[in-house]
Amino acid sequence: MKCFSFTCRALVATVTLVASKSAMAALVVVGALQTEQGDSADWDPPNSSLVMTDNGGGLHSVTANNLGDGTLYEFKVLDDEGSAPANWGDPEVVNVNTMAYGDADGSVDISVNTSLTNGNGGAVTWVNSDGIPLQVVGNFMVAAGGAGDWNPSDPSFAMTSQGSGYYTFDAIISTPGSYEFKATDGTGWDRQVGTDGFGTNASSFLFATTMADEAITMFIDVAAGQVGVVSVPEPTSVAIFSLIFSGLAIARPTRV
């Protein structure tokens, strides 16, 4: 076939572009939440409709819908390496069964960062939901009034959902020292959340207290992917009384 050189170059570029697009790898969520999406079966990679969006920089995300409030679902993430559909035998980007609890609106956002590695050797993963029964666990529990440290199923250490994926637990730490914490779903060690996201071997957040009976708030923000501790200031011991005199407000501190 004869053609002008620029036409041939355009044709080759077009073919190359189409081939490149067809070979683009996709991350696919597979697990116990597939049938809720309308898929024919759970844990069925070739038929998963939960294909993640590539947001750039190693970040991928997808939203799963129609999930039961407070119901546990587990999932993994496969990389089809550009050869769709995904199937078992493809690389497991999320390589352990990872928890996703539905909440009141029936949806959860799953995000994966392939640029970061978690304690399981897979990609750092976060699941945004207000329905996760998180409980804090660590070496601070006795100092906070618990019966023992590192008990992953002590209901007295249940976190409170503040909405928008933000969970908190308030504690008074009796003894100054160095401590650490992460969270579980209260059923044992199989489902954890820590500084490197969700998994079965999450990393703990390290913190220290400097005074006796120090009040702190532990938090996990599953929407922002953040874990930390905030020191709670002591309540003020000064009450302010305002006196109205000649149209002027006079503030007089009075110790109580």
From TrEMBL:
This is Amylopullulanase X25 domain-containing protein. The keyword Heme does not apply. It comes from the Bacteria. Residues 1-25 form the signal peptide. Residues 28-80, 135-202 form the Amylopullulanase X25 domain. Pfam families: X25_BaPul_like (PF22058). It comes from Botrimarina colliarenosi. Keywords: Signal.
